[in-house]
Predict the 3D structure of the following.
Amino acid sequence: MVTLLTNFWQTTGFANMTWQELVMLSVAGILLYLAIGKSFEPLLLVPIAFGMLLTNLPMSGVMEIGDTVLRAISPGAAGETARMLAEPTAEMLREGIPVEYYTQSPGGLINYFYRGNQLGIFPPLIFMGVGAMTDFGPLIANPRSIFLGAAAQFGIFFTFTGALLLGFTAQEASAIGIIGGADGPTAILVTAMMASHLLGPIAVAAYSYMALVPIIQPPIMYALTTKEERIIKMKQLRTVSKKEKILFPILVTVAVSLLLPAATPLVGMLMFGNLLKESAVTDRLSKTAQNELINIVTILLGISVGASAVADQFLRFETIQIIVLGVVAFAVGTATGVLLAKVMNKAMGGNAINPLIGSAGVSAVPMAARVSQSVGQKELPSNFLLMHAMGPNVAGVIGSAVAAGVLLSLF
């Protein structure tokens, strides 16, 4: 009886718990508290935190990778078959041993969800849903907003340089730098393609900073602007025609894809979703992209990203470096957007552009635009900056995808 109880105890998670897993379970608990208790981006943080909780429960096996056994029948077939299967844990026999068959034991449930990230499927689908929910009217009405969206991407390349100086490879530095765009799907796509071993910490950092936009941005905005600048009232935007809204996604897709083919999956799906919305003839498809599809993909993406934060891979010094560099990227992107808005305002007479909208150039939609509105109204309750800030905000979505295309093309 004692032996049975001992054997049972040894099969439980309690007996196999490590301090690293306890730390990760605590991190998951903190993220759940922020999401549920403080309403910090719950749609993102709840799936991520729960995925982190599941994968760090000892012996849960939710991220276990299935095994493949090969028996070769011709020289070189074993290695080639293993590469085609793309199974990291495949039991590869020597080159030259003939392949007769292969068998595969099933892996953990969330491991199969995770393939959507590894294969670059989930991020473009998220972009399609975002496009279906986005109104590019403010950007079309005020094309100068695109410069603010572009300026905010400076944080990506600034942090890329910093990561290189810290000893990261160009591919790893690219994945870390993209955090500065405050765009989770883009960060996941770039990391999955260039530095998949860093996907856990980078994804958690990217989505956490998106959730913390209302905390991170205001101090930077106050530090870089004066009271007089913060109370500037901007003129009402012109009305954008239906024809302009239909042509915009088509022209942007063609222009960006010809210039940066690597950005086509993200920009193309973003603009496709927007065309579904603006064409007014695909209402059912638009509503599906806006609701059911993006909700399902968000659940699968979030829980699989969280589950990738395994204790022995997450609790490393490089994770701390990534988190710090991510904050730097986000802060620099916010600051450069505000500073360019100040320069543009001065160039246009000093009372045309409220510099607060420059911080919305990061692509956290619509959180960054709401922060601009909130800070502006604290200074002047009758000031409404939301629609003006949406221009740089949606420009930032395009800008982060373009920045990702640049990095993917170069490295």
